[in-house]
Amino acid sequence: MNRPTQIAVIGKGTPDDELGLVAEEVGRRLAEAGAVVICGGLGGVMEGVARGASAAGGTVIGIVPSEDPVTANLWCTHVIAAGTGSARNLAVVSSGEAVIAIGGEWGTLSEIAYARQAGRPVVALASWRVTPATAITNGEGIEPADDPASAVELAIALAAAAR
Description:
Blueprint: E1 6-11, H1 17-32, E2 36-39, H2 45-55, E3 60-64, E4 78-81, H3 88-94, E5 98-102, H4 106-117, E6 122-125, E7 142-145, H5 148-162
Parallel strand pairs: 1-2, 1-5, 2-3, 3-4, 5-6, 6-7
């Protein structure tokens, strides 16, 4: 495949200084690895990952829930205005070949579920680690990471394995 690897990054949408710094490092490392970053285009983790990737010269595609591209954070290099509200979560995770979840609340959990339903591997960095109550088909696919470097390395490897 000739196009760059696309990695979706999901997480808490409200400001969080600690997670913002983690997301910024993830974005920088993804850009340095040549990956395109896909995110929800708004604040919190999405803003942090976009800032880090853009500062490193990377490409960031923000998929915002509204019909107005102006709602995206300033670090998105390309914006898709989905106009679908939180249903855009499916577009975010489906657009990545792998997903990195950083922190997160209920919206992030829904994105993890969408990612797994779509067959996308998920790397959890200070995020949800879901364990089914009983065995389910393809129940694996959520891999923990301890730091930004290992999260990016694992996501890139999982994306490459899926190609």
